[in-house]
Amino acid sequence: MTKYNVTLFGGYAEENRKSMDVYASKLSSSMLLYPSKISWNIDIFRPDIAKGIILNKLNYGIRLRCSKYYFYPRTAKNHNGDINHIIDQSYSYLLNYIDSKRSVVTVHDIIPILGWKGIISGLSYPHYPLLFKLSIASLHKAKAIIAVSENTKKDLVQYCGISSEKISVIYNGINESFHTMPKEKKAILHRKFNFPDKAHIVLIMGYQQYKNHLTSFKVINKLQDILSDPVQLVWLGGTIGQCEQLSNKVKLNNPVTRLSNLSLKQLVELYNSVDCLLFPSWYEGFGWPPLEAMACGVPVVCSNAGPIPEIVMDAAITKDPEDIQGLFEAIKTVLIEKDQRNSYIKLGYNNIKRFTWKNCASEVDKLYQRVLI
Description:
The protein is α/β, with parallel strands linked by helices. Helices cover 42% and strands 15% of the residues. It is built from 14 helices and twelve strands. It has helices at 18-33, 60-76, 111-116, 130-136, 150-160, 183-192, 213-226, 240-250, 264-273, 288-295, 308-312, 324-336, 338-351, 357-372; strands spanning 3-9, 39-45, 83-86, 103-107, 144-147, 167-169, 200-205, 231-236, 257-259, 276-279, 300-303, 317-319. A six-stranded parallel β-sheet has the order 2-1-3-4-5-6. Strands 9-8-7-10-11-12 form a six-stranded parallel β-sheet, with helices on both faces. β5 (144-147), α5 (150-160) and β6 (167-169) form a beta-alpha-beta unit. α1 (18-33) crosses α14, α7 (213-226) packs across α12 (324-336) and α12 packs across α13 (338-351). It is globular and about 65 Å long. The two termini are 17 Å apart. The model has no long low-confidence stretch (mean pLDDT 92).
């Protein structure tokens, strides 16, 4: 069997890009298990942040930029594989230093450009995204580009001038660890997270501006006023300052439960201890949380923006991200109407079957083979 070397070019550990790490590790392990006519030897290359007497005197941000844009390219050229796969668009500038004719880039989103242009409602950028623009300026040199959604492909064509023929849409998979737990176990987890008894637990995710958290707080406030049982908002990823600011702004009745830095096991437990995921994001490149929630038997209420409708299909209730009343009615439906709730849970289980790392590996395997031709 013919054997080829693949280098996955990753980012710095110091950037704490967990989704990037997941993509690299799950893709590589799935490719090794996929029954291909070609044997792939896959190496994940992650550089170390540059060190030195002079560099160590610089602040972290400057050291990272020096490492990323000066030292990494000079190291990368020594790690050319038969296939080079840059796993995040922000490292596309590496195409200037490696063999671009044997290179693939995965593009998750171009949010900085869309934010700067004012294309994403509710999202603004305080400065011109110069480094991001410089990074993706070399995208056209890649032999092939993977977009993680049809929506991302559309953005690349419309705002970056990339030929649609060069772009393949290959969906991410979701981790097999996400699963539903028995009812008895969920009750234990409810107590483990110190959630109030007999409360409706609604989960929101992330800290980024485009997650549209103010709308989530307004929706929860309406729910607290109308439902007889208490409603507890749980925020994974929010800061103390964000919680205080938004709670004061909408005059939220109950204090927010704020969580951060959960392990994968703890994240699965969290999903299994909540009653609904509220995800009214203004934009996503892909959007893992709705799928993870569905895999854990949690109904999802989300926005109809960006790629979210193509990801959730009919397995979630989707509303305009500004439609507070519509989101409120949707959350109320899945919390108190048992038949509707169970229906969406069942649809969620069916929907996640489309998103496996085996499927992803199969499509990437075919793409690699085309690149070799």
